[in-house]
Amino acid sequence: HESSERVRFEPALPMSKLPSSHNMDARGRDIAIIAFFALLPFFSMALVYGDVTSKYLYLILGVDALLAYFAYELITGKRALAPGGMLHAALGLTILALILSAATGVFLDRSLWSDIFWMSGVVFLAHMAALAYLLGQYVSERAWPLLRTAVALSAGALGLLSLIGPYGFQLAEQVLFIPVRTSGLSLGNETYLGAYLLIGLLFGIGELFAARGTRRIALIVSSALILCSPLIINFSLLTGGVSLTRLLDAPELFLGLARSSSVAAFALIAFAAGYLVLRRLVKAKDAARAVLGWFALFLALVGGGIALLLAPGSFVQEAYIK
Length: 322
Prior knowledge:
- The termini are far apart.
- The chain is globular.
- It is an all-alpha fold.
- A hairpin with a 2-residue loop joins β1 and β2.
- The chain has a two-stranded antiparallel ribbon.
């Protein structure tokens, strides 16, 4: 018990003082979960729209295996059923509402099973809610940074593959078992790949502020590969195919193939750059207030951009349509 008001569901003893078998089990689970997420974007099978549907299968079977292990530990008394937080309760109520909607036909757009492209099925969403709970039970506190780093590095690997393919340096159409001949690589299309690269960049930049040594260098390289990917930046800019004059006349030429993810990625870089400048220039006693002000200003700018995007006839909407 950390205090009378707040309870932390952690071992009573520090990890270093627990039995070695406990430490080994926990370390093995951390490694397995980290590897599971790191390999996710590279998994594909010869199915209908296999680059997409195989990811659903991979996630569902992985969660089912973890659920079976969790049930085994509950039955054998190796683990107690710990209550979740408010987020878990909200997820549970949401899934219950979706199940009732699917069963009664109240929400006709929702069914138990996903269609091929959208993760809309209640079965899949229920598995993702279960995964959120299980990760809280099994991933140790020190493993979370490693998990985020693994996702960032796998996104960096995809950025490198996109540079090797025909939309980059045109060096190959396949690397090992991964086809690189299409813009979406192993994720099906450029929208999905761009979104994954964006998540990897977000995790990578977030971990950069705390990482040291080899992990920091790996995250810098990974973030650079993501930003140089043809999905994030117009590859012609890197090879001199677009002049500065053309770029000034048409700023959208700066964007990569996954345009929404490209805009979001450079907005993220702008936010991180502003944060770093404030950390270096503002005194420690004023740092929190300055960072909060920068965050509020950044949100206002993003919100204003979204509002203009949705406003009929605005220059932002016209540029987006163009």
